[in-house]
Write a structure and sequence with these properties.
By secondary structure, the protein is an alpha+beta fold. Among the domains are: 141 residues, Chondroitinase Ac, Chain A, domain 3 (Sandwich); 93 residues, Immunoglobulin-like (Sandwich). It has 9 helices and 21 strands. Strands 1, 4, 5, 6, 8, 9 and 13 form a 7-stranded antiparallel beta sheet that branches. Strand 8 and strand 9 form a beta hairpin. The protein is globular, with a radius of gyration of 26 Å. 24% of the residues are buried.
């Protein structure tokens, strides 16, 4: 009999332990959100004696001048860095892409940057700045945005400009230097992101003229001209639609073009004197603004509403208290997935649906029970 009681007690204990690890401990949607977050914090400790370079796990590089701070007393600095380049990380960490003027943004990457000396917050000297180099090519019309709040993301347009370090093809050609994406060797020039295409086209015209004088055949030159002067730099339709080429010839030309683009890759950076949250974004043009009405019969304490733009790295996230009807104005770009979740006791409840410019405007919420892992998949899947 004692053995039976022991077995029943053991099974009950194991069941309780399993439930505790798979369901949220706290009883609101904010607590669920905290458990969805990925561990993105990286910390670096150092004494700032010289100019210092720090590289993040996802490729962000931060250049720190030795005289950057006004209140540094030569102690150990703790540098905090978070990098968000993937859309999945942005979704799970509850980030949003909307400005303080209610403009919809599309992100090329977000960071959190901070410096402390022991428990003291370090302050940057007037006129001083650090430099950030990003591993990814930003969207063409990107700017730098800031946010001072860790939980409400309404981005404010900054004054810093994205700069591009790109190969000086004229000097490199003169010295017969080939430069790859790693940036080893060769000469480079600097311009702002919004001036890059114009600068490259001017250089390309000059290099084509120079090579024309050096070569009698211009087959390779027409390829150069197509690459540099095309309105859509990455379009391969001219090769793919050429009926005179065999599949093998198309493959060969596409491979050469890809290598050519690789050799003319750029390095993107900006300098800044602000700490906290930083976002590289461009304003996203929307098709139509639509009023969405959510109807709810449940009485949960808190709700998290997530709008995920399927074709763009754009997302909105905010929390609501108990409601019966909620109206929300949504800027429509393509198809948007809406995921709403809440906590009922120790259960995670959710509903999801899709909207676009042609969809209906009113939705009756039908909450279903789920687990934390399944909710993660629901949020990041299309």
């Amino acid at each position: 009999m004692k053995t039976i009681y022991f077995l029943i007690f053991s099974i009950a204990l194991l069941s309780c332990q399993k439930e505790k690890t798979s369901l949220p401990i706290e009883e609101n949607s904010i607590a669920i959100s905290s458990q969805l977050k990925t561990d993105k914090l990286q910390t670096f400790e150092f004494i700032l004696k010289n100019d210092t370079l720090i590289s993040g796990k996802e490729g962000t590089k931060i250049w720190i001048p030795r005289d950057l701070f006004e209140n540094y007393s030569n102690g150990k600095i703790t540098f905090e860095l978070k990098e968000f380049y993937s859309k999945e990380d942005m979704i799970l960490n509850g980030l949003s892409t909307v400005t303080d003027k209610d403009e919809l943004l599309e992100s090329s990457g977000m960071f959190y940057i901070n410096f402390k000396e022991d428990d003291k917050q370090l302050k940057i000297k007037n006129g001083k700045s650090y430099k950030v180099e990003t591993p990814n090519k930003p969207l063409a019309d990107s700017n730098i945005y800031y946010n001072d709040n860790d939980s409400i993301f309404r981005w404010e347009l900054g004054k810093s400009k994205l700069k591009v370090l790109y190969p000086d093809i004229l000097r490199n050609h003169a010295f017969r230097i080939s430069v790859g994406k790693d940036g080893i060797g060769g000469f480079f020039k600097v311009t702002t992101l919004d001036s890059l295409k114009i600068a490259q086209k001017i250089d390309s015209l000059k290099i084509i003229e120079i090579i024309n004088k050096e070569l009698s055949k211009d087959e390779a030159l027409s390829e150069l001209a197509r690459i540099f002067l095309s309105e859509t730099d990455e379009s391969d339709s001219d090769i793919n639609n050429d009926k005179t080429l065999s599949e093998a010839e198309k493959s060969y030309k596409l491979k050469n073009r890809k290598q050519f683009h690789y050799n003319f890759s750029e390095i993107y950076s900006f300098t800044d004197n602000k700490l906290g949250w930083i976002n590289i974004d461009e304003v996203l043009e929307y098709e139509v603004e639509k009023n969405i009405i959510l109807k709810n019969t449940k009485k949960y304490n808190d709700y998290s509403i997530n709008l995920i733009y399927l074709n763009n790295k754009s997302l909105l996230n905010h929390n609501l208290n108990e409601f019966k009807t909620h109206s929300e104005s949504v800027k429509i770009v393509g198809k948007i997935k809406v995921v709403i979740y809440a906590n009922s006791g120790n259960k995670i409840m959710y509903d999801s649906f899709y909207i676009d410019k042609n969809s209906k405007s009113e939705f009756d919420l039908n909450f279903k029970e789920t687990t934390l892992d399944k909710l993660k998949q629901e949020l990041i899947s299309k």
